[in-house]
Amino acid sequence: MFSLNGVSYSFQKTVLDNISLEISGGQFTGIVGPNGSGKTTLLRLLSGFYRAPQGHVLLNGQNLASLRPRVRARQIAVVTQINILNPQFTVREMLSLGRAPYHRWFWQRQTAAEKALLEKITADLRLAELLPRRIKTLSGGEMQRTVIARALAQDTLVLLLDEPVNHLDIHHQLEILSYLKNLTAQGRTIIAVLHDLRLARRFCDSLLVLNNGQVITGLPEEHLRSGLLARVFELPENSEFLA
Ligand SMILES: Nc1ncnc2c1ncn2[C@@H]1O[C@H](COP(=O)(O)OP(=O)(O)OP(=O)(O)O)[C@@H](O)[C@H]1O
């Protein structure tokens, strides 16, 4: 699915230093690491938002940098921390925006298949009552569910999410993460930055652990057994936050 070959990325200092790794398709991969370790930077490289000045980011063997944004948006949907939303849009309009990569012009009529897709997403994320509401009137959690729904409306094989459950209460956190996990059973690839290590361990098939410019890949249990998570987060090995 994704291959990174010798990727480095720097701002004033080097954030990612000569990273080579593979991310498998059809899995839930978590990106974890301390604040400032480069999680968002890595996600932006995977989305094509940043171009690696050194090395290559490949999606199914294709260099991401060579894909036109519209073509990329049919393969990768992104939920960022700061989603630039027009506060005047309704939830219904936001969902429709997810179809933009497939339309020639802005408010092109939706096909029956597109309407059915949006209805299913609306039902799955329990958004029906919110459809007529303007974005500016939503709570943080409602907004987050709307943004995730818009990404799902892109109907891509890959979904990249930056802290997708941050604004959600524990019930909605579990609901959204279970939903995302179930999408992998349909062959979709989910890659998400997560801060809660217990949730990451419970839902992720593999974890990318970022620290000091390096990325260590592996199963959550491997990282736990080796003590890597405890070391990186400066926690005792038997910490309840890893359990
Ligand atoms: N546009 C930028 N200009 C300068 N420095 C930046 C920029 N974006 C990120 N950085 C720096 O790069 C480092 C990695 O940032 P990044 O946002 O990728 O980390 P993160 O692991 O996602 O952090 P957090 O957990 O706090 O969200 C940080 O030190 C950050 O200050």
Automatic annotation (TrEMBL):
Domain ABC transporter: 1-237
Superkingdom classification of source: Bacteria
PROSITE patterns in the record: ABC_TRANSPORTER_2 (PS50893)
One Pfam family per UniProt: ABC_tran
Entry's Gene Ontology molecular function annotations: ATP binding; ATP hydrolysis activity
Keywords: ATP-binding, Nucleotide-binding, Translocase, Transport
Keyword Transmembrane helix belongs to the record: no
Record flagged with keyword Hydrolase: no
Protein's UniProt name: Iron complex transport system ATP-binding protein
Source organism (scientific name): Termititenax aidoneus
